Amino acid sequence: MEHSTSTLAATSAQPTGQPIPQTTRSTHRWLALAVLALAQFLVVLDASIVNIALPTVGAALGLSTAALAWVVTAYVLPFGGLLLLGGRLADRFGHRRVFLIGVAGFAAASLAAGLSVDGTMLLAARAVQGAFAALLAPASLALLTQLFPDSAARGKALGLWGAVAGMGSAAGVLLGGVLTASFGWSSVFFVNVPVGILVLVAIPLLITRDRRGTAERMDAAGAATATLGLAAAVAALSEGGSLGWTSPIVLGLGVAALALLTAFVLIERRAAHPLLPFAFFRNRDALAGNIVMLLVGGSTVALFFALSVYLQEVLHLDALSAGLSQLPLALALVGIAGVVPAVVSRVGLRPTLTGALVVLGAGVVWFALAGTTGFVAGLVLPSIVIGLGLGATFVTATQLAVRGVGESDSGLASGLVNTAQQIGGALGLAVLGGIASAQTAALLAAGSGATAATAGGFLLLFLGVALLAVLGAAVTALVRSR
Fold it and tell me: Which of 5, 77, 72 is nearest to 45 (CA)?
């Protein structure tokens, strides 16, 4: 079992035969966890909260539809591209220090986004938000693993963490609609500022200072190729649906991503202190957890993007009603957090994760096939099932991805989990969104009405989300621990 960063040097003086007391980085670790989870909630929330506000943003700042897509992409690109580097920087310079830098930068960029007077200012602020989120996210999860070195408590902590991460995606639809309708589009950014200040005040009071960082040199070449390669890959996946997969821009980004990531692999094999030691993947739990998170990220981003459109264009709900309709899903996510650790302790981590993925897939299929059968049977009940499956999946997949990881690699493991989720999200949205768009166009050409054509396209998207969940269950069963 790993030691936390506050492990006392005096443990060597412990009398022979006496148990060595476990120490953590906080005497109020559950309160510290709540503050860390709140920061993580904002990071996940900001990837989705702007979706419903986009039409209002476009009208206020005079942005075209293509430019509005970049309000989301400008955040996702640096976030996904810099996560791996952010995790290693946290390992190198201190997890608390890097976390606080990330929170401060994220809050400042959020303030700038809310004050934007034109599209250029907004896109620049969103890019800065994503860059600082890439520091915040892996450092916060690494701090969690140090706060809870004992496996039983860590399971409960990761249960809360996974629920918060999943709820951030669901709450984006809910809060985006409520805030935009009540206070205007700027409020979806301003809400981050007071929360960021609260986190900046609380964490230094709750978590001890970092130990002195390691003296090893940073892998600059690996960091550059990984960051640029991941950013190019996310950009290609994000723009493929709108520009077309044969667009010179998309093809150029794809070739650049392939070349840079190939160079990254070659560099890491020879580096004295690699950014990503490939021996890390000898931990089959971490390998399986990251593959599942890749698939879950793809299904989640595609699902909530589709919901924000489906609820308004097919079910004809306004922005506020569309947001409120997701409240049962969000409540189910929160409710499952306290149950999953007990289930894991009784039946095991992998069986619980497999079952959660099956429940998620079943809920999405129910929602897809229910159509407009009624508010309760067609929307509320399948949303609850989706929330239960999604919440349990985030809890157990995160727990699997960091199981058995030592303190010196906790930032790396956390960065990988978040990277897998972001890359999976870009890939899932690009592929499944493209399939939905093609089906909608085909139905329109065949003479279907706009509502029926949109519903037909999203039917395929929802079934694709369910398929990704089933694939995740298969990976969980096949990639076994050594």
Answer: 72
